[in-house]
Write a structure and sequence with these properties.
The chain has helices spanning 3-8, 47-50; strands at 11-16, 22-31, 39-45, 55-60, 63-64, 67-68, 74-79, 86-87, 96-99. By secondary structure, the protein is mainly β. It has a 7-stranded antiparallel sheet with strand order 7-4-1-2-3-9-8. A two-stranded antiparallel sheet has the order 5-6. A hairpin with an 8-residue loop joins strand 8 (86-87) and strand 9. The longest helix has 6 residues, at 3-8.
Length: 101
């Protein structure tokens, strides 16, 4: 896979439910322990993309035979609350994390 395809597939479309708001996020992995044996996959986006929204849609690309699909995505709708979206603790930093596992 070419580097541009890797970059394209490292991002995800984010949409508001019932509002005309769209944005993007990117996939990131945090290590959950010091030995780096357990990871937590998340989607990182900006606070302004999701602030004020009740629900958000995440558009995942389907993978077949280890290749990304560019047709109809798999859409997941989640509530925008403290159980599904983790705000950065510093209010001046415009980032949130959405656990993806």
């Amino acid at each position: 896979m070419h580097i541009t395809e890797k970059l394209l597939n490292g991002t995800i479309r984010i949409e508001a439910v019932n509002k005309n708001v769209t944005g993007t996020g990117f996939f990131f992995t945090f290590y959950a322990d010091k030995e780096k044996q357990k990871t937590i996959p998340v989607i990182i986006t900006n606070k302004y993309v999701i602030n004020g929204l009740d629900q958000i849609r995440l558009f995942f690309r389907k993978v077949k035979n280890n290749e990304p699909g560019y047709r109809k995505p798999f859409i997941v709708t989640i509530p925008n609350d403290t159980n599904t979206v983790i705000q950065h603790p510093d209010k001046d930093i415009d980032l949130v994390a959405i656990p993806a596992a």
